[in-house]
Amino acid sequence: MKTVLNMEERKEMYRCPSCKETKSASEFHKSSRIKRGLQYYCKPCINRMSETRRQQRIKNGPTVIRDSKVCAKCKTKKPISQFGIYRSAADGHVSYCKPCWVAITQKAQAKQRRI
Ligand SMILES: [Zn+2]
Ligand SMILES: [Zn+2]
User: Model's pTM, two decimal places?
Assistant: First the structure.
């Protein structure tokens, strides 16, 4: 009698190049982009790496400290306090000065109300 093992039951061991530990396939995330169907790094290592990347992003995030900025709308150079905080922006501030930003959002709201 032949025993056919399916993919899930394979007891293959893989070596994680990061922690250098040999672990079973269940310790690795599946990946359709990699030929063997599994990530190269084990789950804890992947978690650690993405956490490190996240920490680095926070650390290297919007650290450009400026004291003034040119508004993208009125093209006027204004003190940075005239710009709202926007974490996703490269310099951590909204591209528009507060008066322009208020005008833009009010316009958007007015538009929304009309709909
Ligand atoms: Zn590992
Ligand atoms: Zn402006």
Answer: 0.43
